Amino acid sequence: MKHLLSTRDLSRTDALAILDTAEQMAAVSQREVKKLPVLRGRTVVNLFFEDSTRTRISFEAAAKRLSADVINFSAKGSSVSKGESLKDTAQTLAAIGADAVVIRHGSSGAPARLAGSGWIDAAVLNAGDGTHEHPTQALLDAFTMRRHWARLHGTASTGTDLTGMHVVIVGDVLHSRVARSDLWLLRTLGASVTLVAPPTLLPFGVESWPCEISYDLDEALETGPDAVMMLRVQGERMNSAFFPSVREYSRRWGFDDVRLGRLDTLGLTDTILLHPGPMNRGLEISSRAADSPRATILEQVSNGVSVRMAALYLLLAGENTPAAPATLENA
């Protein structure tokens, strides 16, 4: 595995390798000294053409905990604002000796273009491209779900998949790269997935995707999901009205206080709530639901550092299988 561009390209073996290594990285993060020397002398560039908080900071923290040198690049205030092309930017990064490039770009396919261009000889990690994919977000979501699934069944997380788990993904699927990455990865790991959205917020051809489709959140909850992922309504990517009003969307597809209570009524005491962030409180999820014990939103953020440490380690340390625990513990 030279690059991490899409969860659709990940085999079950590769996906479990990343998740199992992330478990070891999470253990390292609990130590008093949270750093490992495994990427000392390597340079990781965060190349962000779109705004980001969680993903950029998470990748920066991950790289620094592995002792890599980190360069943060933002399109705003750089030569990109003067018209510099992706090719020229990439060649500049190659000239300074970048070993890995974490790229977020507004155009779908930009990370794949960078990885296959020959402009730079570095590992490329997709941190979100257009409405295409966001693989590390899906991996941290799966990591969070797998830990919950293991606790529920009294088993160890390492080495296990999500076979038997039912996940409902709700909201703006049309514009969500997270929904796509989550779907492919969850299916690879054995989970079943139901997408819930208004018809106008489902992509063309979604009927051919390996999932169930529903337009009614309440009906989907009655199927007994083990996890519910609420998606952000991406107003910045919408050029026209995709639903009648904010109030109507929240009433029909938002996870409000009533639906939070309904989980107990349905006997779904172990169902967890996820959200990739940033949240539009009161629109796709209520504050009470977001702050409830069921919510794993902050846990997802914390897990994101471990998952991204694992991805960087496996790509840059020349490993394609999980690191031996002793290797990391003695580092």
Roughly how much helix do the residues carry, as a percent range?
Answer: 25-40%
Number of domains: 2
Main sheet: strand order: 7-6-5-8-9
CATH H-tier superfamily of the largest domain: Aspartate/ornithine carbamoyltransferase
Beta-strand percentage range: 5-15%
What is the quaternary state of this protein? single chain
Number of helices: 12
* Structural class estimated from helices and strands: alpha/beta
Distance between the termini: 23 Å
| Highest CATH level, the class of the largest domain | Alpha Beta
**Reported CATH architecture of the largest domain:** 3-Layer(aba) Sandwich
How much is the average pLDDT?
A: 91
Radius of gyration: 20 Å
GO molecular function: amino acid binding; aspartate carbamoyltransferase activity
Domain Aspartate/ornithine carbamoyltransferase carbamoyl-P binding: 2-146
GO cellular component, one term: cytosol
EC number: 2.1.3.2
Describe the structure.
The chain is of the alpha/beta class. Helix content is 39%, strand content 14%. The strands form 2 sheets. Strands 7-6-5-8-9 form a 5-stranded parallel β-sheet. Strands 2-1-3-4 form a 4-stranded parallel β-sheet, with helices on both faces. It is globular. InterPro entries: Asp/Orn_carbamoyltranf_P-bd, Asp/Orn_carbamoylTrfase, Asp/Orn_carbamoylTrfase_sf, Asp_carbamoyltransf, Asp_carbamoyltransf_Asp/Orn-bd. One of its GO terms (cellular component) is cytosol. This is Aspartate carbamoyltransferase.
Task: Offer a quick outline of the entry.
This is Aspartate carbamoyltransferase. The protein has 331 residues and is of the alpha/beta class.
